[in-house]
Amino acid sequence: MRFTLRVAVAASWAAGLSGCVASISPQARADLVAAGDAYDRGDDASAVRAASRFLAVHPRVEEAGEALYVRGMAQRRQGKIPEATKDLEAAATLAKRKDLVAAIHLALGNLAYDGGDMASARLHYEATLERVPRQAPPADQALYRLGCVLQRQGKWAQADLYFDRLIHLFEPDELARRAESRIRATRWSIQVAAYVRPGAEKPLVDRLRHAGLPARTDQELRQGRMMQLVRVGAYATFGQAESDLPKVKRIQSDAFITPAR
């Protein structure tokens, strides 16, 4: 996530100095800054404690949205998904600055996506795009994930519109390169392995076929190299691919589902 928490707390501190939120005590504001700093250095426990101290004193001020955002992001990284979701949803109701609100919606979209709720994820990613300039992060992340969401929903042509926009606006960024590998897809496959040398994939393909799996080799140009991609199946829906994935993982544990042309 390129939106750093220091950006949020620095803006909040500037607002306090200008007299916009004079009711916030210096100690509470120091806690807010400490929460952002702790999160940025990976100390999630300290981030949660500092944000909680701020919220205990100022639970409803605008800056509480920033404290909730920090605490929610720290809890997400700790694997506390229900707590993170609750904090981020509360943050969305209190925060006012567009950049922070965009970051909150992006985080909520990611939580929904990871939880398999594509409809909610789409709404949050669209809300992110409404609040950031078209060529500024995190628009790239929202565009990429919107394309992924639409593919999961079987809306391949609509997904391509977002991938095209991402490639046009952000190339040669990493997400633009990822979009290039997903664009123009029309089905799902399970990718098992990738090889540079032609023929090296044949033993694995034979093993998969011997297990009754419809394995094949797809050739794809990636970063100037022609890759031999071992894949299984051509599924109309993500769910169909998901049901076959455990069978493939018994042979290759790091196999994963991917869009395919």
Structure description:
The protein is α+β, with helices and mostly antiparallel strands and 261 residues long. Helix 2 packs antiparallel against helix 3 and helix 4 packs parallel to helix 6 (98-114). Strand 2 and strand 3 (225-235) form a beta hairpin. The chain contains 12 helices and 4 strands, in the order H-H-H-H-H-H-H-H-H-H-E-H-E-E-H-E. It folds into 3 domains: 5-96, Tetratricopeptide repeat domain (Serine Threonine Protein Phosphatase 5, Tetratricopeptide repeat, Alpha Horseshoe), CATH 1.25.40; 144-182, no CATH class; 187-260, Alpha-Beta Plaits (2-Layer Sandwich). The radius of gyration is 22 Å and the shape is elongated. The protein has a 4-stranded antiparallel β-sheet with strand order 2-3-1-4. 61% of the residues lie in helices and 13% in strands. Mean pLDDT is 92; it is low at 13-22.
- The CATH superfamily label of the largest domain reads Tetratricopeptide repeat domain
Number of domains: 3
CATH fold descriptor of the largest domain: Serine Threonine Protein Phosphatase 5, Tetratricopeptide repeat
Structural class: alpha+beta
CATH architectural name of the largest domain: Alpha Horseshoe
Q: Secondary-structure element order, as H and E?
A: HHHHHHHHHHEHEEHE
Q: Tell me what portion of residues adopts beta-strand conformation.
A: 5-15%
| Shape call | elongated
